[in-house]
Amino acid sequence: LDLSNCSLHNVPPGLAEATTAIVVDLTENPLTTLPSGSFLGFVQLQRLAVPLALECPGGNDSWQDVTVDRSSRLCQGQRNPCNSSVGLAWPCPENSVCAPDGPGLTQCLCDDPFHGYRCLREGTFPMLLFGGILGTATVSLSLLLWGTQRRKAKTS
């Protein structure tokens, strides 16, 4: 994805849709910052070229090789922050595993059959119970409103 020399002052919002990009070039743009979530979901990104004034997203420890030339910084080989030897691995709650979610970013995915907040609920989501209660409440409320509002419609 070549976005070099596009006069970008900010990261374009459409960049979030290019999560399958392997190479991104942002050089020769007057960018001043890269917001922390700019590359959220970019797990396949292997080469990122940014203006010299900017750091690699996630810091230099998130990349295997960072090279600097006279006008740009090249970040190559995204590292997996979940099994990083630099610093501590990301702490995920019990019943979950760490998964990379972009340069220097992680997410915790629940092990099967756990789900919910901090992966504390076991089993599957009770769809039948949820749908039954929601359907019953909707039909009951609809009948109640129909019955009460029908009298007002006849008098008008």
Structural class: alpha+beta
Strand order of the largest sheet: 1-2-4-3
Number of helices: 1
How many β-strand runs? 8
Q: Quick one: overall form?
A: elongated
Give the termini separation: 64 Å
User: What percentage of amino acids are in beta strands?
Assistant: 15-25%
**Average residue-wise pLDDT:** 89
Keywords:
1 helix, alpha+beta, disulfide bond, single chain, elongated, 156 residues, 19% helix, ARAID factor
Folded structure, characterized:
The chain is of the alpha+beta class. It contains 1 helix and 8 strands; from the N terminus they run ββββββββα. Among the domains are: 15-83, no CATH class; 124-154. The strands form 3 sheets. It has a 4-stranded mixed beta sheet, with no helix packed on it. Strands 5-6 form a two-stranded antiparallel ribbon. It is elongated. β5 and β6 form a beta hairpin. Disulfide bonds join 110-119. Keywords: Disulfide bond, EGF-like domain, Membrane, Transmembrane, Transmembrane helix. The chain crosses the membrane at residues 125-146.
